[in-house]
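Hi R.,

Here are the chain sequences for the assembly we discussed:
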Amino acid sequence: MNPKLISLTINGSTHQVALSPNTTLLHALRDLGHTDVKSGCEKGDCGACGVLIDGVVVNSCLLLAWLAENKELVTVAGLGTPDKPHPLHKAFVDLGAAQCGYCIPGMILSAKALLDQHPQPTDEQIRESLSGNLCRCTGYVRIFEAVRVAAQELGSTLPE
Amino acid sequence: MLSTNTHILFSEFEYHAPTTVNEVAELLSEYGDSARVMAGGTDLLVQMKMERRRPAHVISLQRINELHTITQNGALTIGAATAIRALDQYVTLNHPSLGARLESLSAACNLFSSVQIMHMATLGGNLCNASPAADTAPVLLTCDATVTIKSKTAEKTVPLADFFVGPGKTILGPNEFVTYIQIPLPAQNTGSAFRKISRVVADISQVCAAVTIVRDGNIVQDARIALGSVAPVPFCAEQARAALVGETFGPELAEHVGNLAAQEIKPISDVRATSAYRRSVAFVIVRDALMQAWDNCG
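And here is the predicted structure of the full complex:
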């Protein structure tokens, strides 16, 4: 089971990294310092390990890192910085949508994938987009509201 | 010694990423039982993490373009590695008329776990994993779907109804894999519906049911009824079907047929639901699916 040199493009930067075939994308990313990608259930139930791959949200715990080669990977830190937060970051902070915070990176990436596809989502679409992300603290109400607020914020900045 | 069941992928394997189906057949003929074909990986990697499977060779279908494509030529031919989300989008976006007749397929795709899993999991994987709860299986059974099975030396197409053997077991031999799933295009006066009961939408079915009806005026010309999570394999309710075909449709008939289906199934009690609960809701969802399928008949 020989490691192979794999090229991973994460938040716009490309890394060459030697990985064994049994390394999941989740652990490849965390080992590279992207600890904003969280390890939760490790079996595709909780969504904490969510990553955008070419704009699509997937559970990185169920993807072999080798399969992510030459694709655009985005983690929650890739959406903005503390100085220039993404509207989703800002809405989650403003509304106190995070308690322990562990599920939030996955939540925000699921919401990002939704808003990229449906800039003005219905409540039903927001619920569906978050259905693969488990939160054991909040009861989801503020998370849901934060996505709605971010959608309004993004909508108001769209060109006419 | 590493502990087991950590949910981390410890097991070592050789990874193969062929680009043609012939290469897959070649690899399977060489490695047989020690190999496992991986489509989306959402079932296989969990099984490997739980150490229920330890394949020495993992053969990915990810780079085989033809297995990710859907073609329409008298039948829908769906590459085994087509993601559930891609299948749903194909049916609903490209073929609105088809979408109405195959509403059960769209519904099963939409209720298929979470958005993340819909993007990763595949139709072929859902069938080959052979869970009694596989959401797409009852739908495909009611569509008279067939599966094409390939090995290095042969290729055959078999009815899906003959494909499942038991929980996690199919007729696939160690050298064989599924390349395509075919769905005959439903006639114009066909309606279908899918219903699923689960704790939350993204969860595995406690019971699910799919129905297809071919309508002739007020008469049920032909029909199929299939259920998931109620027997060791996805289950065709033949007695219920016999009571439906040739009859004048109405709410009383739907009620009667739903009752027959609920008596026919062989549900177990497990962590998700009791046998009695499954029987009770099977009646309800078969009845409701029949009513909706009838309404969907164009």
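The interface with chain B takes residues 1, 20-24, 27, 41-44, 47, 50, 56-59, 61-64, 66-67, 110, 113, 128-129, 131-133 of chain A (CB under 8 Å). The two ends of chain A are 54 Å apart (CA to CA).

Let me know if anything looks off.

Best,
T.
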